[in-house]
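Q: My labmate handed me this sequence with no annotations at all. I'd like to see what the chain might look like in three dimensions before we decide whether it's worth expressing. Could you predict it?
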Amino acid sequence: MIEAIKEVPLNTLKDKTKVVPYETGITYIVGPIHLPVQLDDETLFFKWYCWLNVEGEKDSSFEELLDRIQTLPLASQQQSSVLVYGDFETEESALIRMHSICHTGDIFGSKRCDCGYQLKQSLRMIKEHGAGALFYLANHEGRGIGLFSKALAYLLQEEGLDTVEANEQLGFADDARDYKDALRVLATLRQLPVTLITNNPLKLEALQQSGANVVGRIPLWGDVSDYNQRYLETKMEKAGHFRGGYMIE
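A: Here is what I predict for the chain of 249 residues:
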């Protein structure tokens, strides 16, 4: 009886885990998981997926992963995930947002950037469109430099450097983000074309050059304030973001 009870949930886990090999490892995609999300004064129902990349493996099974999952440093190495709305797999038209994690903006509501606003606004746009997905990319903090380095960059910004100058002063590229893992998950969830929510032409170009079936973009209006105006101006002047995405005089 005990063995039978244990077997049922493990079968459920296996049924909802996709094993996707790639050149140097395996991506495990868990989901869908039903996730009620409070947005404004409404509760919306999303399907949530989380994925894990394991480098150096080619033929590992889900059972083998489960046997050693307690030994993996998952708590200290954040994983990315995606919120899916509507019939994302088969709907003719769908939106996607590749959203870089922003600890300060998304969680604390910092006004030094527009990330928290963009997160919620993307969900609103996807809901209004009827189908879409928001990818929440955990290894993208500070344009890929990590949270601790971002804190150092903030201190440099308080001394007068802009966001690009601060990253470069620390020895980083202006933008160190990589989208290949997210695109692998996107291709697993949907084969049809998608439209990208972004003001960043480099992000659109990077996704298209990586083989993503992205047919265009729609702008994401920024949350302009005295606290983030220089940040937004730097995006436009040095990172080439579309000026129409930000209402700055």
